[in-house]
Records
---
Amino acid sequence: MMASVTRALDLSARLDTAPTAEAVGRLLLAAIAPYGARSIFSASFKVPPYKKVEDFAADRHLFAQQSPRGWVEAYYQRGLHTRNPVVFASARRTTAFRWSDPGFDDLKNWPGFDLARDLGIQDGLTIPFHTPGNRVDVVSLGFERFDLSRQETLTIALASAVAHERMVELSPFIPAPGKPTLTPRERDCLAFVAEGLSDADIGGKLGISQTTAHAHVESAKRKLGAKTRAQAVARLYSLGLF
């Protein structure tokens, strides 16, 4: 156990220097890349009273996301964001689990796994964190190979827990009743959308990838209940969230 703790602390030693939750996610992913990690998704979700995956996913607060090229676009085009059982399963687990673990029928035959494999992600590890306010946070990691030993899995789970604490510290939020809660980065991305910038241009302005910029815009659209980007910008103005 102590060896795993020491390795986890070594992996996460640089996290205190990260200025944003997203930067924490990038540093964590870089640290565990030698283990085969190629993607990271970290977010917070409210658990009750949701009964469906789409409702559970709609109320998310994104901390960090870095995915293979083409993942986000295909993920939303195929409607996978409304029915991701990996995220939903986190509400029913208290320890780290592999995406391919048995025991959850809704994890079987999910088309998102086919997409992940097409993009070089063979399996994943999700670490759930049950937090105050009936929320569950996740750090979900995709691996191009998954041949981790028990100690390596524990090391990555511990490092992810340290990273999660830092992401929460850097990305506080208080859900406001009757009004959607957008992160500063989501508002920044929509502000640039209002200026007519593309995802690539937004990424360049904010120092993030085009994929990440797209994810922030799509997350803001869902929270605002908007079908288009223009509608999202209009609702943001009308709610006084700019």
---
Amino acid sequence: MLVRWAIRIGMGLAGAAAGILVSAAVLGGLSITASAIIEATVVFWLVHIGVQFLALRILIRQPSVATAGLLAIASTVVSLIVVTLVIPGLHVHGLNTYLFATLIIWATTAVADFIGRRMIRDRRLDRREERRSR
């Protein structure tokens, strides 16, 4: 169980970091200093988890797939705004930059989550096969 949590946390942080870095590289209106990358990643991930928990566990008990996707995008927007306000080395200029950065970060976190779930599933299947072979 601890390995599963470690994979989920690691992939969540990796997805957020990749999204922030890709956004900074692709979008001219987003700039980040080297020292702010780690801070922005951790703060983004914590806020993102908190907003998703609040929305998915408290506000909406059983969301549809479409609702969960919209909530993921909304939590990405909120997280990006909070990180921009809290981390001094991250600057986002313009509404278009916020929009495209949100989509990039949302996509990278979704891909990282997919990869993490796949790693957990593969690990679970490997463990079942090991038990059967004994």
